[in-house]
Structure formats: structure tokens, C-alpha cells
Write a structure and sequence with these properties.
It is a single chain. This protein is 28% helix and 21% strand. By secondary structure, the chain is an alpha+beta fold. The two termini are 30 Å apart.
Length: 402
């Protein structure tokens, strides 16, 4: 059992944060309205402000929700990387390849818990994915919680977009949001996005957005190359113009809850290089009351100087840099020599992250057969790394509501 200490947090406190690379988009892909994969930007949408006073509950009964109960692993991200390497003739170099959603959870770990994930580590690289079985268990546990009297059901709030991180997992029987399954603001997105630039969109379409059937099957995803500390990363994530919703805060408790959302909003946008976030504030009944545009880079300072100071962006960055460096260097020999599948787990309120082996060999289905075959082909650039590849699995436990 290998352990990485999270506490005390002052070990990650410094006057400046670890070096970070500006995210650069290297590829993209889309899912269409039938959730079919395409290596293009057909699902890219354009922001146009929604009408204040819109009812975020409207159309909930006809919501066409994606069923993601099957584990798709990193397949679409790896397929996009294969296509990129075929087009450029060079291998994408990175220490870690994963979804932005999982990196968001890891980066927020000093102030939040993150959920089950797993990582497959070929030599010199780590491919990290969320642990799917534990994600579904966490989702079911969250769904069993009863809403407080006078409040909306948790499945309705997920439709509003009260808990937002970019992935849009299916909820059995339209169940609630959970710490392992955070949601885009489905209705808010439909109200705020256009299929073409404003000048090319009819007035009838713009004014009828409140009546559209909400469908979260379509997604536009960006693949970026970035760096945190010594580690180089390739991240894939849905780009939804970073549209978020939150209850209008009134009390100190409301403000602290909103700051917790801002932590994830900031990390999520920071990792993909999205410069601005649009937040729609709603009433307790789901009526859109106001809009606020936030600059991503200014959010940590805003929380520190004007808010309750419930989290520190520098601590998040320094923690992530040290954790990735520890995983990249401190565990490289062990994982590369032993092979197999490994898990990274953070228990609820635990001061450490644990890393341990869960399978003696194989990739745990994290890497697709197509990707393994592609990276194992003889070529001048990949032959030195083709051979044997070890895998590891990250498992972070205990759900935390959004």
C-alpha cells in the first residue's frame, strides 16, 4: 500500500503556485443528438443570453436523458488521439491522459472528496478514468436521500443544473445528482445556446428555446494539452460554454455553498482554458432570476477577498502538482515493474490517498483494443515504448453532493 499525505494543507501553501501550462486545444470531437461519435465540431453551440424569468422546470417530464450506465472508459478520447496521431504523424506526448472531470475531482481533493476512478499506466504514461462501478453505487446512494420539506427533488434540481461539472451521466429512473455524477445545467444550456451564430439563427428559434425538448445526448468535447508542475497532461472534456446555475444566495450558509460550487466551476474551466463562466441564479422554485459573467482567473481571488475564503486556488494547484509528480516519479518503478491494474482511493475525510494493486495483469478495459494495437505498432517514434505496458487504477471513494 502506497500513501500520499493530503494533510496538513499548509504543506501545499506557498506565496506562488506551481508552474502551470496554458491549455492548448489539439483536437475535438462531438456526440450528436443520438449520441453517435464524430471526429468533428458539429455539436459546437453558441451562447446567447436566455430570458430572465424563464422556468427551469418547464419540460422536465419530456427530458430525453442519456443512459450512460454502460462504462465507456476513455474510448472516445483515445479514438480522437489515434486520429490526431494519424493526421500529424507523431505521437502525443504526455505523462497523464484522462478526462477533465476526473482531474477536477483530484484537484479539488484538499477541500472536497473525489470519487472512484482508475488509471491504466503504460510505461511513462498514465491513463486515468473514473471507477465506474463505484460511481453507480454512489449515485444510487445519493438518490436514496430524501429531499428536505419545501425543497425541489434532487432529480429536478439536476435538470435545472444545480450541480454542474461537465459530464452528464444517466440516472436510473431520472435519479439525483451525486458526488460521482455531476451534471451540466441541462435546461439552462438549452435556454442559453444556439446551433449557429446569432446572425445566422432565426428569431423564431431564439424566442422558442423555452419550449424545446431538453436532450443531453449531444456534446462538443475539446482535447487539450496542458501542464501542472512537472507533469504534462492531455485532457478531454465537454465544452458547454461553462454555463452553470446556482440558487440565489441569501445567508452565510448559502454563500459557503455557492463558494463550493465556484471551486469546481473554476477548476473545470481552468483545466480546459475556458476564460469565462456564465452563472444563472435561480429561485428555490427554479425561476431564472439573474445572470453573472465571471472571469475564470479571478475566481480564486474573489473567494479569498470577498467571500468566506473556504478554499485556496494555490493550494489546489500545488497539491495537484505534488500528487502527480509523486505518482509519476515515486510510483513509476513500482507500477512499471509490477504491471497489472492499480487503484487510487481517497476515503471520506481521510488525510491520505492510497494506491494499491487490484489486478496482476491487463489494462482493466481502460485502454481500448484499438488504442493498444495502434500504440504497439512498429514505428520510429513508438517502437521504444511499444512493448510491455503496466496499468494502474484510481479508486477514490465516498460521495459528496454538488
Amino acid at each position: 500500500m502506497n500513501r500520499f499525505e493530503i494533510q496538513p494543507l499548509h504543506q501545499f501553501t506557498a506565496s506562488s503556485s506551481a508552474s502551470i501550462g496554458r491549455p492548448k486545444e489539439i483536437a475535438c470531437f462531438s456526440y450528436d443528438d443520438a449520441h453517435q461519435f464524430h471526429l468533428d465540431e458539429r455539436s459546437l453551440r453558441y451562447y446567447y443570453p436566455p430570458r430572465l424569468g424563464a422556468d427551469l422546470s418547464k419540460g422536465f417530464n419530456t427530458f430525453q436523458q442519456l443512459d450512460d450506465s454502460a462504462d465507456s472508459h476513455l474510448d472516445s478520447l483515445l479514438q480522437t488521439i489515434i486520429d490526431l496521431e494519424k493526421r500529424t504523424g507523431s505521437e502525443c506526448q504526455a505523462n497523464f491522459i484522462t478526462w477533465r472531470g476526473l482531474m477536477t475531482k483530484i484537484m479539488a481533493a484538499p477541500f472536497d472528496t473525489f470519487n472512484d476512478a482508475r488509471t491504466s499506466r503504460p510505461i511513462l504514461k498514465s491513463y486515468i478514468e473514473e471507477h465506474h462501478a463505484h460511481k453507480l453505487e454512489s449515485r444510487l446512494a445519493q438518490h436514496s436521500q430524501v429531499s428536505r420539506p419545501g425543497t425541489a427533488s434532487q432529480d429536478l434540481m439536476s435538470y435545472w443544473g444545480t450541480s454542474s461539472i461537465s459530464s452528464a451521466p444517466h440516472l436510473t429512473h431520472r435519479s439525483s445528482a451525486s458526488s460521482s455524477a455531476v451534471f451540466s445545467g441541462y435546461k439552462f444550456e438549452t435556454l442559453s445556446l444556439l446551433p449557429a451564430p446569432w446572425a445566422e439563427t432565426s428569431r423564431d428559434y431564439i424566442e422558442s428555446r423555452e419550449d424545446l425538448i431538453v436532450n443531453n445526448h449531444a456534446q462538443y468535447c475539446s482535447v487539450v494539452k496542458t501542464g501542472i508542475g512537472k507533469s504534462r497532461l492531455i485532457l478531454g472534456g465537454e465544452v458547454d460554454a461553462q454555463l452553470k446555475t446556482a440558487a440565489t444566495p441569501f445567508s452565510d450558509r448559502d454563500i459557503r455553498k455557492y463558494e463550493r460550487k465556484l471551486l469546481k466551476f473554476w477548476i473545470q474551466s481552468f483545466l480546459l482554458g475556458v476564460p469565462r463562466i456564465i452563472v444563472g441564479f435561480r429561485s428555490k422554485d427554479g425561476i431564472l432570476q439573474s445572470l453573472e459573467e465571471l472571469e475564470t482567473e479571478k475566481i480564486p481571488r474573489m473567494v479569498k477577498l470577498k467571500g468566506k475564503g473556504s478554499w485556496d486556488g494555490n493550494v489546489c494547484i500545488n497539491f495537484t502538482a505534488k500528487f502527480l509528480d509523486w505518482k509519476m516519479t515515486g510510483l513509476t518503478t513500482t507500477i512499471a515493474e509490477d504491471g497489472g491494474v492499480w487503484r487510487i482511493r481517497m476515503r471520506n475525510q481521510a488525510p491520505v490517498i492510497e494506491v494499491f494493486k487490484v489486478a496482476q495483469s491487463g489494462y482493466g478495459d481502460i485502454l481500448s483494443k484499438e488504442f493498444i494495437e495502434w500504440r504497439s505498432r512498429p514505428s520510429p517514434q513508438s517502437s521504444s515504448q511499444a512493448g510491455h505496458r503496466a496499468t494502474s487504477q484510481v479508486d477514490t471513494s465516498n460521495p459528496q453532493s454538488g
